[in-house]
Amino acid sequence: MGSGRLTRSGVAEEEKPFRRLADAIGGETEVAALRAHYAALVGDEPIDLAVLLACAYPAIGLLLDAHAEDAMAVARAGTKTARDGRSFRRAASLLVGNGTDSQVVTRGLRVLARREKIRIALRELLPNTGNDVDVTARELSDLADTCIGLAFDEAQGWAAKRFGVPLADDGGPCPAAVIGMGKLGGRELNAGSDVDLMVFYETDEGAVHKDGKLSEQTLHEHFTRVTQRFIATLEDLTEDGSVWRVDMRLRPEGSRGPLVNALASAERYYETWGRTWERAALIRARPVAGDLAFGKRLLDALAPFVWRRAIEPRVADGMIALAERARVELAADPERDLKLGAGGIREAEFFVQALQLIWGGRDPRLRSPSMLSALRSLRARGLVTDREGREVEAAYLVLRRLEHRVQFATGLQTHALPERGDLLDRIARSLGFATSAELEEELAIVRKRVRRALLSLRPEHESRAAPEALARLLVALDAGDEVAVLARLGEHFEGAVSPDLARHMLSLARRPDAVLGAATRDKVPELAAIVVSALTGAADPEQAARFMARFFARLSTPSAYARALAEEPWALRRLVNLFGSSAFLGEALVGHPDLADRLLFGRGTPGVPSARLAVEEEIAKLSGDASLDPDAFVGALRRAKGMVLLEVGFADLAEEMGTRACTATLSALADAVIGRVTRFALREMAAGDGSLAVVAMGKLGGNEIGYGSDLDLVFVYDDYDPELCIRVAQRVLRLLSLPHGDGPGYALDTRLRPSGNQGLLVVSIDAFARYHGPSSDADPATVQGRDWERQALVKARPCAGSVALGKAFLALAHAAAYERGAPPPERVHHLRARMERELAGERRQGSRARYDLKLGRGGIVDVEFAVQWLQMRHGADRRVRTTETETALTALEAAGYLDPALASSLREGYGFLRRIEQRLRILHGASAQLIEEGAPGLPPLARRMGMRDGPQGSAADSLLARYREVTEDVRAAYLAVLGLAEDP
């Protein structure tokens, strides 16, 4: 946000790490010389930024010498927050105007690209801030999308003005789209990369029309000229440099083919001549400019060429051969080539793309153009082990970090690691290594892992336990000798082996028909090797084995299920990955082993419609009599709840669903359950359908509940028997929460009702109106609604019961929340401070601190209070009336009520904190909102949050540093919104 928080001395807080990093990378003598150099060029404010950039990246130092004004522009843009396409377009609009003046566009795009590349390079230098190479690669890709889009739009406008408008035979516009390929398509663009592009238009059946007349120019000629112009806009070298180099060689027929193609000709080409490497290339295709809807139709039309239903394991051989051929033909020094060398970036990408081509025809969820996203999906589906997935991802990121540093430092499109000397030493120090020798040692390790993973795709190299070691382990298991089993496990697992693992392995072999039992091994001899291999690759082998033992113990015929899994080894690995990665999902699946088939073999990512459908399907399975039986009815709801929780949790673990999608789906599930329970209770009590409305509050009201959230509910009635309505409400709460053999219910919280815990469980709508006093005839002396209660009504949303009554309640709630203005900010902050002081679980003991995600300083409640206060303040504008926090942030920013920098801090903070909250539940199974330094669960949580171990610190250290930075920014934004001074 902005250029950083200012101290009383006027020095930005974020400049302090700039100085420390510059000293570490360049040394005191060089830093002193650079400070003297840049003092005259850039002035005092951005001098630390300029010195750090010049120390780490000599090529960028030369850019700043030529364009000193860029240092101030970067300083003012700030480095804390990642930018996306929307923010890049906003920044571009200030430089390119309306996008029609070619000279303004040409210069504006160059200035934008140069400054943003410098800012992104700087962000990647800063440790423990979440600015790792995958984040900055997304930024570079979104920046490229913006530049390509503006250049293509200008070229289309120029061509239409000069030559005419391209129309199809039906008289409608003939659309065209630019398709991003390679790293751009995967949103993983590197610092010195070309942008790989293809351009397609819809049809050759049409003509160009100018001033009502047909032009002699064909559609193909028209779009060729458009393409030539927009490439020149991006590539031509001016005094401001160029925007991006463009590579069009991935188009049909390569450099020999036409520059642009119609959809029909592209389909013919790929059907007739398409090769394996072109299938792999199209995995990463993504529409980036022009008519994006047409671009999607084009890629959908080409999908049958890329994704085959038949399983083709030999595709891997072809990909390995392609990597080896490229190394021979293109790499000048393969041993130092980060991209094409053995175990390099290309081999990591090919490992993933080969598996995508093999399995993606049957599972659309594997079709991501992003290499890392696809790798995580493959891991979640058991197509790679958890260890393989973690090792390849970590290796890929090491290689990409190094690639970026080399390209930023040299200003060249190179993948060659510099020879030992000053430049390599400088790069090593910028990455946190003491010497370049340490860097090269780490590089050798990760390249070996990538190479091993790629070669494992060949059948003769398939990863299995060594036969002799496996035989010794099985003998020990048959003997029931725990000490011997523990010793033999050491031959399979890296590092120390837990005695608990040996005990769980014995449980898996104790019964003859168990997974590792003698009878099962006789019938399915290959199964034991698959199980041991899967466990060695699990994130937590001991946890995985423990849940495996409990799961198979619940099955009446474990050998039959084991035999089925042996026929689908990927499903067994998927099960082991799940058990080893999530205690929450493990407990849920052990409790409902009948759901395993749907979870392991199901298709599609869950969402709001599927959550609602799951409830209706379970209810529909009940017979006429069973549908009236409370126990059977509740059992059906619990089964639906358990299945949806598992599906959402599994998709969350695989990173196929973002936090917002997860909470929306879980909220829809709760709504569906509450709706069904309310109808059941009304019928059971013979109450009228219009007698009662159920209102969701808090997180449920905002469609934001997590895996362990309580349900905040208020019950409202109108002109009906109060006693009967109270009994109905009590019955609803009972049915929602009572224990049941088919799974737990919901925890309930009715404290947000008027007067809190002392208030009535069910309130009449007239009493509610009198309490909050929004009506014109209300006696001001009788108005009791307090500020915090009005604030709570911002999240009110009818979710079940009478629709008409719910609407009437909502109108009154909106009047109370939005039409009486916001309370004084001091009063809001007083309440917030009390919550932090009296309810938060934060503390510091010695060097160990404990943080409260929700109630602590800069926590989730800071964001919610800031947003809700602004909504109340500007509630007369109906655009800001929403129960969803992130939607409200967007609306407040768009309406001009919230500064974009503050909105960015609040949005990023809220997303980060909610992700931690959800990850805690997924990993450890506990409904917790606390994280503590030194806690054993912190490292796996940090890794699931995308933090990585490295020379600059552990993943846990990075998570805590990021947490502290985010919460400081959130608290600063919260205070700025309320117009209050800094906390004492």
Q: Gist?
A:
By secondary structure, this protein is an alpha/beta fold. The chain is 59% helix and 7% strand. Strand 14 (843-845) and strand 15 (848-852) form a beta hairpin.
What does this structure look like?
This protein is α/β, with parallel strands linked by helices and 984 residues long. The chain has 5 domains: 82-306, 2-Layer Sandwich (Beta Polymerase, domain 2), CATH 3.30.460.10; 315-461, Nucleotidyltransferases  domain 2 (Four Helix Bundle (Hemerythrin (Met), subunit A), Up-down Bundle); 467-581, no CATH class; 618-820, Beta Polymerase, domain 2, CATH 3.30.460.10; 827-978, Four Helix Bundle (Hemerythrin (Met), subunit A) (Up-down Bundle). Helices cover 59% and strands 7% of the residues. Strands 2, 3, 6, 7 and 8 form a 5-stranded mixed sheet that branches. Strands 9, 10, 11, 12 and 13 form a 5-stranded mixed sheet that branches. It has a 3-stranded antiparallel sheet with strand order 1-4-5. Helix 5 (69-77) crosses helix 7, helix 15 (345-359) runs parallel beside helix 19 and helix 35 runs parallel beside helix 37. The longest helix has 30 residues, at 133-162. The protein is globular.
Give the SSE layout.
Elements: H1 15-26, H2 28-42, H3 47-56, H4 58-66, H5 69-77, H6 85-96, H7 102-125, H8 133-162, E1 165-168, E2 176-180, H9 182-185, E3 195-201, E4 206-210, E5 213-214, H10 219-235, E6 246-247, E7 260-262, H11 263-273, H12 276-283, E8 286-290, H13 292-306, H14 315-330, H15 345-359, H16 371-380, H17 386-410, H18 422-430, H19 436-455, H20 467-479, H21 482-489, H22 499-510, H23 518-523, H24 527-536, H25 541-553, H26 558-567, H27 569-581, H28 583-591, H29 596-601, H30 608-620, H31 630-653, H32 659-684, E9 692-697, H33 698-701, E10 711-717, H34 722-737, E11 748-749, E12 762-764, H35 765-772, H36 787-792, E13 797-801, H37 803-818, H38 825-838, E14 843-845, E15 848-852, H39 860-873, H40 885-894, H41 900-924, E16 930-932, H42 938-944, H43 955-978
Parallel strand pairs: 3-6, 3-7, 10-11, 10-12
Antiparallel strand pairs: 1-4, 2-3, 2-8, 4-5, 9-10, 9-13, 14-15, 15-16
